[in-house]
Amino acid sequence: MKTFLLWTSLSLVAIPGVALAQVQSISASDKRTGAEAHPQLVQEFGGAMKGPAADYVERVGRKIAVQSGLSNSERDFTVTLLDSPVNNAFAIPGGYVYVTRGLLAIMNDEAELASVLGHEVGHVAARHSAKRQQTATITSVLAGIVGAVAGDSGVGSLIGRGAGVGADLITKGFSRTQEYQADDLGVRYLANAGYDPLASSDMLGVLGAQQDLDARISGKANSLPTWASTHPNSVDRVKRARGKAQETGKAGRGLRNNDALLDAVDGLVWGDDPAKGFLDGQEFKLPTQRLAFTVPRGYAVSNTDAAVTISGNGGQASFSGGAIGSGGLDGYIGQVFSKLGGNIRHGQVQGGKGKGVDFRYAFGQGNSNAGPLDVGVFAYRPDNGATAYHFVTLTRSGQGIGPFESLVESMRRLSAAEAQGARPLRVKVLKVKAGETPDTFARMMAFPDAPLDRFLVLNGLEKGDTLRTGERVKVIVRN
């Protein structure tokens, strides 16, 4: 999960060896800066969720954030639940704190939620990004984010694009000392707020298990930005956080509020929301647009509001759409190339035959930090309407379409019944009955691969653990 922790003028708060800063409220300048950045961050991460789960996250976030000393008023903090499947949490100056529904869903109690949010606020309170980026500002970095998403920074900016692209431009990873400081602050905030401070080490363990599972299932290390990738985890770090919790004298004695967290996540969408497009096996479906295409095997998919990105060792493709204009598909292709930047000159526009929808396409040459690239634009006008859709493919120079031939030819129209029948995966909370085991619930999981491992990690369990009659567990079902 990516962390947007930026330069700020905030004073140090509660760092060992540094005098406690008596900060009563967040400065007006920080509030203005955060307020300016907030809408762009929310947009990049799928928008702000509304409803009981979002209200719950806001209450917990404000309760833990006020422990930082950045402000004595909970009303000074804006805590947002983001509609993103990527596991992420971050905070920015001005009292803005964020967590995604993807990360919320793998938590098991309220104290774990508070530990993550407290850790992020701790990074801001300790001014960690200020030490790494003395001249960066939120708005200047966000300008880079918008440019990368729109393609205005050149073809090279599209390389490695995915959910949370802005975090790559802001956070290059925290030092071990900075992570330990944020951990220490988070543990202190938990204890002061009345939570069990052991939740910090428990949450680090959950995140590590989830990252390991994702790597095993995909067959490679997770390349998407996640909380764990910007907050490097380790067994030693988990042990250290547990030790710090013991030092508070409150370990095991504070609130955990398991039921409150489970009530909040019950019914939460898991993974991509079908309304915004979702992966069904190897096929990515967009019910709203009534379109679908098949992703090459071994390629990762990242779905943001701006585009769907398909990435692998052979290159990257990006799918999006826009107004077709008066020039038809040929003119539309020219518009796409012009928005990529870098003065890319493309060759003659040609026609292609698809399995369900025909297309027009052209190739050009671009440059990136990795060297010269072949850049393809493949455009579709499935219903002769005012909107066109397109892939931008990026491969090494000389490869042309490379591994994406099957992708661009696979575009098809969804039937009305298919579009209407698209159902999301959701978190479902169940009560354990007598005789039920992890295998019982693994059979309910809506995944063909590793259902037992997925169930165990989702519930913070290990192989060999037994379930108690009456306890509540999470499963992922198609609803």
Overall form:
globular
Q: Cα-atom Rg, whole angstroms? A: 23 Å
Low-confidence stretches: 1-21, 132-172, 221-225
Write down how many β-strands occur, each being a DSSP E stretch of 2 or more residues.
17
Number of domains: 3
Structure, briefly:
The protein has 479 residues and is an alpha+beta fold. It has helices at residues 28-44, 52-65, 101-105, 110-125, 128-132, 138-150, 165-170, 176-192, 199-218, 227-230, 235-247, 258-265, 328-340, 405-409, 416-421, 438-442, 451-458, and strands at residues 78-82, 89-92, 96-100, 269-270, 278-280, 283-286, 291-294, 300-303, 308-312, 315-323, 350-352, 359-368, 371-380, 387-396, 412-413, 425-431, 472-478.
Model description:
- The protein has 479 residues and is of the alpha+beta class.
- The chain folds into 3 domains: 241 residues, no CATH class; 147 residues, Mog1/PsbP, alpha/beta/alpha sandwich (Protein Transport Mog1p, Chain A), CATH 3.40.1000.10; 54 residues, Membrane-bound Lytic Murein Transglycosylase D, Chain A (Roll).
- Helix 4 crosses helix 8 and helix 9 runs antiparallel to helix 11.
- The N terminus is likely disordered.
Please give the structural blueprint.
Elements lengths: L27 H17 L7 H14 L12 E5 L6 E4 L3 E5 H5 L4 H16 L2 H5 L5 H13 L14 H6 L5 H17 L6 H20 L8 H4 L4 H13 L10 H8 L3 E2 L7 E3 L2 E4 L4 E4 L5 E4 L4 E5 L2 E9 L4 H13 L9 E3 L6 E10 L2 E10 L6 E10 L8 H5 L2 E2 L2 H6 L3 E7 L6 H5 L8 H8 L13 E7 L1
Parallel strand pairs: 1-3
Antiparallel strand pairs: 2-3, 4-16, 5-6, 6-7, 7-15, 8-9, 9-10, 10-14, 11-12, 12-13, 13-14, 16-17
